[in-house]
Amino acid sequence: MVTVKQFFITQGLKYMELNDYLKSRLVRAGYVDVQVFRTPIGTRVVIYAERPALVIGRRGATIRELAQTLQTKFGFENPQIDVIEIQNPELNPKIMAYRIARALARGVKFRRAAFIALHNIMEAGARGAEIVISGKLTSERHRFEKFRDGVVIKSGKPGEELVNEATVQVLLKPGIYGVKVKIMPPVELPDKIKIKQPEVVT
Fold first, then answer.
1. At what angle do helices 110-123 and 93-105 cross, to 10 degrees?
2. pTM of the model
3. CATH number assigned to the domain with residue range 4-85, chosen from the 4 options 3.40.50.11540, 3.40.50.2000, 3.30.300.20, 1.10.3720.10
4. SS (H, E, C) the chain
5. What does each of the 202 residues of the chain score in pLDDT, given as a tens digit?
6. 128 pairs with which residues across the strands?
């Protein structure tokens, strides 16, 4: 008999395997995340991507192939795939982390990749951003470099609720590099004080 703990562990491992598969299979589509829902008629799989057209493929060929793989490899019953486009991708930390990782894999210098991403994030209207790249950056010794612009709250409730964060890894010749991106979207801070003008009585 499978216990509740074993069930959730199994489901968690299956999600990790699915996420890793989609991440490698849909790298050109700007894959971000996946959600799986059980329904009375089968399994609903929601894929979030930067370029949905590449997930769907020509005349739906790619999405049909994905559905077949989900059924045979992952055991999903009658998988129904929905693809949702990420709005404002430059304000999504996972997309920007993937972009930096892909740039590093193409041979772009890490400082250039970070500054380009930082510029694009701020141009999209973010209040602030922070990028941390770690690995054997300039020597055999592991270290990290941090790049930031604007305001990024790091403590308290606003730091937990307003700042979005994502981390990805990329395997290069010197070893594994880590890319962490934090983005503070264009939101109004709770400590902003507004002075209300007195009403003029006529």
1. 150
2. 0.73
3. 3.30.300.20
4. CCCHHHHHHHHHHHHHHHHHHHHHHCHHHCEEEEEEEEECCEEEEEEEECCHHHHHCHHHHHHHHHHHHHHHCCCCCCEEEEEEECCCHHHCHHHHHHHHHHHHHCCCCHHHHHHHHHHHHHHCCCCEEEEEEEECCCCCCCEEEEEEEECCCCCHHHHHHHCEEEEEEEEECCEEEEEEEEEECCCCCCCCCCCCCCCCCC
5. 667 777 677 777 888 888 888 888 888 888 888 888 888 888 898 998 888 898 898 888 899 999 998 888 888 888 888 998 888 889 999 889 988 988 998 899 999 999 999 999 999 999 999 999 999 888 888 899 999 999 888 877 766 778 889 898 888 888 899 999 999 988 777 666 777 777 776 6
6. 150, 184
Q: Which amino acid is at 177?
A: Y
